[in-house]
């Protein structure tokens, strides 16, 4: 029989920070065991703090997938970077994720320069270790550890799952004692409406990676539970110019139809119900300067140009 000490529950927050495309969203989805964060080849796809919830023994670990930290150029960029550092300073553990192949590039350098300002326990995670020789990996680990005081270093492949069990066990042990903050079966604190919009946005990026600029967003306008148990969802894809609207629609509406089919299938898996998805594409010029859009994404609207 387990002693009372062994059964004490723990719960806490782990902030995943790193450059765009370091693999944070893939890692989060792997640790949680379900899709809670958008994964895309297009950089800067995570715009808001996405919380994924994992259980490990008596511990509940709430992972915060922060937007990738990069050099902000536009107002939306600045809001995302501010959000990322804010997520780090509020966490019980800060996990810096680096793409081992890229090493300490310009983006990693900028993060490492600012990281000592975050006075929280930190660990280093080197990702994509299957794509780099061991000697280079060890040299990189040593170089990064010289830059800040990391409690531990983990070498993983988020995509293949290598090293994740050890990482999860370590994080579970670092969580402060206390009651769980979410129900046992909950995997994210993002509303399904928001997750559904993020899934559709991911499918747009997958389909139109080269053609569509970064400035597009998706909003869930209607989420209606029908008597037969299915869900009717209406979403609007907002772009900034009519030329972009034509790209998203495609010839005879074929592109938006394919995006809708792909998104519907994935939303149905998460909602655990049949889904009827209706997509509309509208032009909203300069939506990146509209404070209301930022509030809907959970971001603070940065003042100034």
Automatic annotation (TrEMBL):
The gene is era. The keyword Signal does not apply. Residues 44-48 are annotated as: G2. One of its GO terms (cellular component) is cytosol. Its main location: cytoplasm. The keyword Cell membrane applies. Residues 10-177 form the Era-type G domain. This is GTPase Era. GO terms for biological process: ribosomal small subunit assembly. Keywords: Cell inner membrane, Cell membrane, Cytoplasm, GTP-binding, Membrane, Nucleotide-binding, Ribosome biogenesis, RNA-binding, rRNA-binding. PANTHER family: GTPASE ERA, GTPASE ERA, MITOCHONDRIAL.
